[in-house]
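seq:
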Amino acid sequence: MIFNIKKLVQPHLRKFLPYQSARRIGGKGDIWLNANESPFSINYLTKKNNLNRYPECQPKNVILKYANYSKVNVKNILVTRGSDEGIDLLNRTFCIPNKDSIMIFPPTYDMYSVSARIMGINVKQVPLLKNWNLDILNIKLNIKNVKIIYLCRPNNPTGNCFDDKILKKVLEIADRKAIVVVDEAYIEFCYNKTITSWLYDYSNLVILRTFSKAFSLAGLRCGFLLSNENIIKILSTIIPPYPISTPTSEIAEEALNKKNINTIKNNIVLLNQNKDWLIQSLKNNILVEKICHSEANYILVKFYLSDKVFTFLWNEGIVVRNQSEKTNLKGYLRISIGTKNECRKLIDSLNLLKL
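struct:
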């Protein structure tokens, strides 16, 4: 007798569509410009031979070095398995399924809503305005029952940074009602825009950080959650006992050495130069309808016949991210900034395509 295991699955998950990560979508080729990863690889070597022992729940040396790097007190830092675990942890801690809601601003990073829907948490969507700014009026009108507000800054996939004054308005609207989570996954590319200094002024502010982008460590799965001491203490009681493996913690510690941080800063300069070159080259291409300003390591580009462009590049072994199914992004492709050679190959391929 064959038993239908789906009968044991929660009803809302039986036809659940998973987050469509770049690796899950797939593709073939040698130019990967679809996941906002760094094209530069930095070699780190693990040295410890104590994998028979469990690691620290919160590696002290990593926290101490990240505190020095981010200029945030050690008591305000929690290390997580990438920022995705931080999102999951916040949703599990603060939201009651089928009662509470999170608020997001599409188009934005999908994992905020995916994590919530897995847990049966409601998702309120307040689409960005045409200029990619936040709709303050509709935030006020929809704040009821919202426990967490997720903001990506710079926003993925649009690449823009929301204005400081607007962020402060959101924090004020949410005061004593909801936590405001500002995802700074791409902040290294515009570090003057970080709001870590606000942590001591707003008790409902949480900031997410990651090693997956500028630090060239997407495969490490290491992130940080920054907030006031009370929120960190609460989350510390909920997080699994051993979230960070010993090799992860050792590499993270090494990545925060002065020499490696200087390497990362130099790589950011190179990527920003490549971005400027790519934007100028795209402006001269008849396939391009619009290029959005970006403060991150990717650009959002609207193409004429974008599906044809996407498929052509895919067949050429150049994998970018199609955003046409996202809110108000029909015709847009998101392109991660690669090496200068990868950017050249992208432009050369686009020049071969005729509408």
